Amino acid sequence: MQDPQLAADSRFVEPLEAAAHHLRRGAIAERARGPEAEQRARVRPCRVQRAQPQRTGLDVVARAQLDLCVQVAPVGRQRGDGRVPGVGESRTFAVDLCRSLLDSDELELAPDALRVEPAQQLPDPVGTHSGAAAGTREIDHLAVAARIGRPEQRGCARRVLLIGDDQTQTGRLPTVGKAACKAAKLLDQGHCAERTITPVAKVEQRRGLSDEALREFFREMLLIRRFEEKVEERFRAGELPGFLHVAIGQEAVAVGVCRALADGDVIASTHRAHGHTLAKGTHPNELMAELYGKLEGCSHGYGGSMHLYDVERGNLGANAVVGGGLPAIVGAALAFKFRGEPRVAVAFFGDGATNIGTFHESLNLAQLWGVPAVFVCEDNHWAESTPESQHSPIRDLSKRAEAFGMKSMKVDGQDVEEVNKVTARALKHARDGKGPVFLLCETQRLVGHYIGDPQVYRDKDELRRLQETSDPIELVREKLGLSDAEYEALDREVQELVDSSVDFAKAGTDPKPEDALKNVYA
Fold this sequence. Notes:
Blueprint: H1 4-7, H2 35-41, H3 57-67, H4 87-103, E1 113-115, H5 150-153, E2 159-160, E3 172-174, E4 184-185, H6 211-236, H7 251-258, E5 266-268, H8 274-279, H9 284-291, H10 326-339, E6 345-350, H11 357-369, E7 373-379, E8 382-383, E9 386-387, H12 388-391, E10 407-412, H13 416-431, E11 437-442, H14 460-469, H15 472-480, H16 484-506
Parallel strand pairs: 5-6, 6-7, 7-11, 10-11
Antiparallel strand pairs: 1-3, 2-4, 8-9
């Protein structure tokens, strides 16, 4: 029943009047009702059907509790003083109550309660419990004959606040404004079929990335893999000049890092640059044309595989010199700081580069100047053909950053989701002006140093084991649960894109002989 006395209270408001900025936008109001609303509220009480919402004063309190991550069943034949939490106290109450809900498994009634006199009982009971006695008798809204199974309960709230009589104080109920009770776990078996608790604040354990986003990451990684396999095929066929270094097995680092970058952020790559270039946004047609030495290439045919750059898309270039991109990234980050631009510069390099002088010089100056830079070490444990144990006295390369007082982070470089999450943290740290970050990505190079590398320095059984257990593409496919049909459809789409890039490159424009000396400065 609608209580006309309660409705006339100036603090009583309809749920839809809640502040728009409130988290749940529904149960806690910030402004009182106007005169018209008060006048409309003074209506003659009328009976409601069982399936209709119950709108007693306590039901309003129940709605406030729903907003606080719990569900409260209305108390039949009893009502309080019609109070609802004020704006300020309701938020404090919400924080305290939610904290107790998360930390407690037992129900504890408030030590101080507001007495409810028998004369205050409503003349007409609520719902199906019209014969319930008043006073100390409490209606059990959870114990009914009709049960609801577990599958039907999944849409409901995970916790419920139970209101009961204080055994030592007859006829007393907890005061909402002073409630300090701790909720019991939801019984998960049944509520009355007509009084099922409505799902309001459903709590889910969610992954950092949605399935749709992770699927996009998977497609990007698959594109890099198929592109590099095609590059190896065309190189062995004699169509591509120079040396080529593929990054098969390291796709998760390229995609995870580059997908976390914002517009305006820049990168510098290594001699193993195809994956970084594609992940940064360069079209496969432009990249393949560059490998074929065509004017339509991203570097207009001047760079080739080890000197890929695409400044318009934030790629400051690959570098055939080990660690050669590090100083350029420090310079770019310093420029961003001087200009007051919220941009970050990112350097990719391998574990072997941590022994190069420019690595130490770059990290030293970056930390000294506090520039917004992130240094991404793709630790595949091989410096070309030298195992890490033979070129580094430490196994944890993140300790390299400790010498400069630089913040360091580590991540499994075969898990693209984790790489993306940790990179986002590193970028925020740098973008917020807190200084550079050293990001160590433990990854696996599942191929040789260059196309045609016999890998006589490597244990073949160990390589085979890594290919079977540490392939980042297979790990994402398993996480997504892609069927064979879905995988084949994506693979076919990516393969067609790669094949068309070869056709585009072959039909491209060869540079003129007189262009050979252009863009030469020394």
